[in-house]
Amino acid sequence: MARGYPGQKNPFGPIYMIGGLLTAGCSIAILVIVNAYLWYTSYYYGGGFAVYSNACYMQTPDSQDSVNICYYSWAAAGLGIFFSLWLVFMQLCSGRHRHIPVCEVMVCVLALLWWIGCSITAMIYGQNADDYGNSSVSGYAQVLKDKEGWRTSVWALGWAQVGLWAICAAATLKDCASNRGKPPPEAAMGAYPPGAYAQPVYQEPPPYYAAPPPQQYNDAPPQYPPAGAPTGYPPAPAGYP
């Protein structure tokens, strides 16, 4: 890919590109599932005003007053898409001349830690909702039981992202290890060889006023020959006035 010096291909570039695209797809899938199947909004008119009611089926009803896991999932997926696009953009940026992929290491490690925390949170709240749906006979519990598969899909996609980012992070560390002991390509070129391309020694010429006068500069100008002296020209024709 483009990361590296001009003419230097990055063997880990395809791994970064595929990993970035797959993780972006998982994040988009989480957004769609939560919005379409695990988030419920309703409203009714009472006293001349519209009263809205929201419900997140990723958690138990008693935990919705302290935290909203649907909002948390949207934020997690949104930041996950940012990490994925960041990794893909760095492979497409032709102006980056990096000998060691520090940026790739940073984004992969940050994304890995982020998705570990998000997956653990979604799994804990999702399993609590599963237990509530299986242990109660209320109408809300029945809805939670029907949504159990979608909740499992969300945190399963989160752990899939953990695996993908772990692979990308391992690739970045391997990339660093393989490039750390290598000198940059400019160092292998060496100095320019002497010879025809050697730079000549520059000598500044003396200023004009310091140069000596030319030879015979003060000599008298030559005298013209006297009148009537032979000059080597042919004589004038006869009869010429």
TrEMBL record:
Domain of life: Eukaryota
Signal peptide bounds: none
TM helices/strands, residue ranges: 12-40, 71-90, 102-125, 154-173
Residue stretches of biased makeup (Pro residues): 203-215, 222-241
Keywords (A to Z) from UniProt: Membrane, Transmembrane, Transmembrane helix
Region called Disordered, residue ranges: 203-241
Coiled coil: none
PROSITE patterns cross-referenced by the UniProt entry: PROKAR_LIPOPROTEIN
Protein name: Uncharacterized protein
Gene source species: Chlorella vulgaris
